[in-house]
Amino acid sequence: MQLFWLRNITMSFIVLTVLLALFVLKISLPTMPIVLILFALAITNLITRKSIDNIGENLDWTVFSHLSIDIISFSLIFYFTGGATNPFIFLYLIPLAISATIIPGRQTWMLTSLTVMLYSLLLRFNVPLTYIDHDHHSMTANDGMFNQHVIGMWFGFLLSATLVTWFITHLSRELKRRDNDITEARQRELQDEQLVTLGTLAAGTAYELDKPLASLSMIADEITRDHEMERDPKLFWNQEILRQQINRCKEILSELPETMDDSGPGSGEPTPAHEFIDRIVSRWRKQRKSPPCKAIFPKSDLSGKLIYDKTIAQALVNLLNRSADLTHRQLNIKISASEKELTLDILDDSTNINDVQIENAKGECFYKKPQSIGLFLALTSLRRVGGNVQFSKMHTHGGCTRVILPFA
Description:
Blueprint: H1 2-23, E1 27-28, H2 31-50, H3 59-79, H4 93-102, H5 106-124, E2 130-131, H6 145-223, H7 233-261, E3 269-272, H8 273-285, E4 293-296, E5 305-308, H9 310-326, E6 331-337, E7 341-348, H10 355-360, H11 373-384, E8 388-393, E9 399-406
Helix pairs in contact: 1-2, 2-3, 3-4, 3-5, 4-5, 4-6, 6-7, 8-9, 9-11
């Protein structure tokens, strides 16, 4: 694409200089061959634009072929406009600079050899420039013709320097962006490795917990065997709580294989936003009854749908638990939406929160603090589906956990 635009700029400049030579400098040029060469170059550029999306893997040779076309086209134009004496001979530098930047190696040396050969031929074979009012071969420095040649060389150098600088600067930005993408990819790969390790430990732990839970279930049944409900109501109540928690643990462990079978990013079901939030809050309510939680919906309708699966639900429940641990009164979930994403602001009334705690809340080094494992899993799960999480302090007091989720 950059070569496409660069060629358009170069052709525009050539047309401008031809018009300047004909009508201002009064130079006699063979316009028909130049027009045919520019027309062929324009057709080539149009074909290039249409085939950009289907280049394939041979990018180096594709760039090499296009730069060869440019060099040959320049040579043909130079042949009809004075050959090596043409002040715009600097245009040869542009394809070579691009080649040296993008495809260093054998192709660049081949282009350099082609350019040197064509340049050498232009020293011997060319159509000399002739002026309408003067004979080119009798041109001297005193009659102003040489000054026009020098000015033309200056314009040629200005064009070459500008285009090369623009292209190299733009390419440098692209390389920096690519390096940043590679760095982010490496960080995601490291996180994926940590998740694989954690998933392996979780599967092993789930298998090991099966028998202790079975033993605890039997013991819970034995606790109230020789007691009466009327005489020891507290004992029966505690036994019921213990049984409920054991069943809850079994339910969580039984969901693990099912979650692993359907754990790919975006593999859940599209769910309307209202229903999505209600299901998250209901899932969270099964774990804890306090503090009270209030979802504040916008006045406008939420027409988008969100991908709901167990990994996303677990991630949001972990974030709600974190904010619930920090709050003392009520947990508020403020909901807003744009065309492409839904934003959940989980607001708590925590006090004395500082920047260090916010930085630690990112959960990057979760092995250092076991309580941060849930937070790390939440961040990773949401980012896998294109979401994001941000932590901040409120202006008055309390903290805000902002969850951004893309619509399906």
